[in-house]
Structures
1.
Amino acid sequence: MHYELTYIISGSLPETEQPTVQKRLVDFLTKKYQAKITKELTLGRRRLTYPIKKEHSGTYLTVEFDLAPEQLKSLDQELKLDSSLLRHLIVKKQVLTPEQEAKHAASLARLKVRKAAAEAKVVRPGNSAKINLEQLDEKLEELLEHELK
């Protein structure tokens, strides 16, 4: 069966050690479970919506692989015990033919073009200058201090 494993590496782990964790996980899949890796994708470091194990950020990675269904439960148990992973999710995935992949890529491209065109049409009232989050926080602090006095 074809599966996709998405996992989050702890944000407290140094950037230099993340490829080591990724390689260790891929080696674990290929050597212990004889899984055939078909695709690896790094989604990047992101801020978590809520803290997981007291962590506020993590690096998201995805691996697609082929594995016997009877081995899935033991793989899941072993991933739960890995302390460098904050979370993981294994889902069964349909294998796409090259024609289906091309069709999917074309539809994503059309969607991206439509979204860009729709955003170009939107006229936003007020000042068009963008304010970054730090400036917004400073202004809010200033207003709150002014109100308290």
2.
Amino acid sequence: MEKAASEEKKITIMVVDDHEIVRNGLESLLNSIPGFQVVARAASGHDAVMAYCRLNPDIVLMDMNMPDLTAIFAAEMLIKRDHKAKIIMTTTYLREEEVFLTFKIGAKAYIPKDIPFAHFEKIINKVYLGGTHIPLEMAWCLAKRVGREEMPIKVSEILKIITEELSPKDIIRYLDSGSQYTRRCLYEILFDLQEKEKSEIEKGGCNETS
């Protein structure tokens, strides 16, 4: 028997932002979504670390620009305490160095604050289920750096995000700017997608004849 919506486990969220109006706004919007519950708010990196240790929320939404502890340092402390911590970094301006540091420490997503709220909701659900998210315009830059440096996220994960966002023809245009390692990973992903498409076509043909 299916459980009633009220009995289902909610995704618990902590909102970390030094602007009270942003914290209040996000809390109101997130709590309006069935399945989401804001259980903590923090105005600084230090407060975020203390609150996380007490409440252990499923998701942490953390602004990149924080007083006292930097957001990167605070997020890194959380991940060192709990390697399963799922942190989404939010930002007003997309910066390549920020997105690189975000994934270097093991955070799961880096998103601009001005995205439609429906996308925000999808990203939270995606991260909760174990996925990652990178803005498309930052993903290619990150893929080139990850191929040269050791990081928790793999090039194949980043390129998978790219292939989900772009058509194969669009992807080919990016190949010239990638390293040999990145190109090899991308070709492997494209090959897998092609094989999957062939399999689906063949399966559809079998269904028609059966």
